[in-house]
Amino acid sequence: MRVLGIDPGLTRCGVGIVDVAPTRAAVLVHVSVITTPPELALEERLLRIAAGMEALLDEHRPDSVAVERVFAQHNVRTVMGTAQVSGIALLAAARRSLPVGLHTPTEVKAAITGYGQADKKQVGTMVAKVLRLDEVPRPADAADALALAICHAWRVPLGSGAAPANGDAAGGLTPAQRAWRAAEQGAARRTAAPRLVR
Fold it and tell me: Which residues participate directly in catalysis (predicted)?
């Protein structure tokens, strides 16, 4: 399964493509950041981003697209730019009849690290580990795009276009979440172990 992950942004738009095997092993195909200068007219910036996305879609032909779900922030201007770029990604995928998954940052962090409140450094480190890279992809937008692609692939049954209600086929958990849960259960067992009374 090949997934294009998009971390939408008007100044920096992270794009990452991964191939995921039935074993859930992931391999890096492509990662980059589409940039546009702030002084350029908005419509020109959107046009450049659209051209970059469409070129990647046509060259690498992913099976699905994963986009970060836009959420409210204090900076309305930033949210607007992110939403506009997200719309471009959705349109480009729809033109090619590709299924799209929208994932919140918390969902992505939980899928990749097993912890929904992980910071960017932790996410980047796990992305590098999962993809067996020598270093963390930079800038952070690139690592975030790869994390989105991996998250989507792990949450969607391979060969399927739509995400199930409860995550992947193995109990609704991603590999990172299963490892996290196993560690928690091990800690709970150690805490609950009976103590000898002398």
Answer: 7, 68, 141
